[in-house]
Amino acid sequence: MMRPSRAVGVCVCVLAAVPAVAQNDIDHSRRNAIVRAIESVSPAVVSINVVQVQARRVMDPFARDFWDFFYHSRPRYLLQKRQLDSVGSGFFVDQRGHIVTNYHVIEDADAVASVALADGRVLDVELVGVDERADIAVLRARADRMPRAELGDSDDLINGEWAIAIGNPFGGLIADPQPSVSVGVVSATHRRVSPSVGGGERLYQDMIQTDAAINPGNSGGPLANANGEVIGVNTMIFSQSGGSVGLGFAIPINRVRRVVDEILRYGRRRDPWAGFHVEDVDSLRRDFRDELGLQVDSGCIVSNILTDSPAYEAGLRPGDVIVAVNARPVRASSDLDFAIWAMFVGDSVSLKLDRQGKRQTVSFTIQELTK
């Protein structure tokens, strides 16, 4: 009669172990790759606090009543200044305290006051250098052994892979230094944003598009992959309402890395120079095209070139029509301008030309523009 009871006891023990195994599976699933990536990158993310002083003229309240008695006098004004604090995001790229952010985060600031880390520390910072066209700025915190973010490879992205935007979208409205996180995917790569977005002066090309929510204040923060590597710098959103609608753009980290190297080495981004100017072929009158013997309807015609330039030494001449640069089609001058701006001193350039119906290629090395 005892055997059945022992069998029942064994069954009870086995059934009791099932919930523990299920709980372990749940705990393991919670600490997935996304969670580990966030834990890896977040300590290196900072809030950037900048100060902007707004000046306005106000009538001197102590002189107003007195002035009223003298119509022939002019009122006295005081210059009143207001301090405005604004917040962007950034992240440490090395343990020496160098921080990367967007240039537009600090563009109109009178001073960069400080940065706040996720652990609550507030550090003074100084500006190291900027690249206005690339929209990148480098700061340095006055501290060593900072937590740094691991940089990935933005040339090795897959559409649909996880993308994690980390930053401080609402800044001082939330009294907590911990960064906010939003998760999405890489929607597209090599996106080129219209020059009108940056006033024609910002180099927004080869951008990473993501549907991870990016909001004001996220600018300058990292876009990370599921391996916990930074693949881009969150820079802008397209939105009619001002809020995130799943169209966010980040500057690829491979370009950022080269800009940072330039700034740390030279204190600035050296201006690339090729030594010639162009005009759009389709902007010329048809009779003028015929007079020049042009055989193409699009591209850029070389209108002016310096004889001591690298392009001239390579064989480029006035009247040549550039139809491709480094194997990328050139249909308008903005295509060529953006391609040259994206290069660095020492980079190689290959131009495909149409010279009165004959195709040629010239190659040269980008030099630094000296003033």
User: Given this structure, which CATH class of the largest domain is correct?
Assistant: Mainly Beta
How many distinct beta strands?
Answer: 22
Q: Could you say what the CATH topology of the largest domain is called? A: Thrombin, subunit H
Coarse shape: elongated
What percent strand?
A: 35-45%
Q: Determine the number of helices (DSSP H or I, runs of at least 4 residues).
A: 8
Main β-sheet, spatial strand arrangement: 5-4-1-2-3-7-6
Count of distinct structural domains: 3
Annotated CATH homologous superfamily of the largest domain: Trypsin-like serine proteases
Q: Rg to the nearest angstrom?
A: 29 Å
Structure write-up:
Helix content is 23%, strand content 37%. With 371 residues, the protein is an alpha+beta fold. The protein has three domains: 42-141, Thrombin, subunit H, CATH 2.40.10.10; 150-266, Trypsin-like serine proteases (Thrombin, subunit H); 272-368, Roll (Pdz3 Domain), CATH 2.30.42.
SSE arrangement:
Layout: H1 2-30, H2 33-41, E1 45-59, H3 61-68, E2 77-92, E3 98-101, H4 103-106, E4 111-117, E5 122-123, E6 125-131, E7 136-141, E8 150-151, E9 162-167, E10 180-191, E11 207-210, E12 222-224, E13 229-237, E14 248-252, H5 253-266, E15 272-273, E16 276-280, H6 286-292, E17 300-305, H7 310-314, E18 321-325, E19 328-329, H8 333-341, E20 348-355, E21 358-365, E22 367-368
Parallel strand pairs: 8-13
Antiparallel strand pairs: 1-2, 1-4, 2-3, 3-7, 4-5, 6-7, 9-10, 9-12, 10-11, 11-14, 12-13, 13-14, 15-22, 16-17, 17-18, 18-19, 18-20, 20-21
